[in-house]
Amino acid sequence: MKRHILVWLGIAGLTGNLWAVEMRSDLVGTVTLDDGSVATNAIVFIYTAGPKEGSASVCPSCYADCGKKAKTDARGTFKIESLDPTLRFRLLVVSPGCASQYVEKTDPAEGPKRITLKRLDAEKLNAPTRIAGMVLDADGEALVGAVISPEGVQWGDGGRWGGTDEFVDPLAVTDEHGRFWLYCTNGVDWVRATVTGRDAAKRWVELRPGRDHLLRMTRGALVTGQIEKDGVPLADVMVGLVTVDRTCGSFLLGDELATDQDGRFLIPNVPPDREFVLYAKMESMRGRGMVPVKEFNSGKDGNEVNLEVVSVKPGFRIFGRLVLSDGKPIPPKTRLLLSREKAWDNAEAEVTEDGRFEFRDVPTESVALSVRVRGYKFSTRNPSLDWLNGGLVGRVTGDIKDLILLMEPGDWRYNGEVGDPPDGDRQPRDKPLRSLLL
Question: Which residues contact 434 (CB under 8 A, 6 or more apart)?
Answer without folding.
Answer: 383, 384, 394
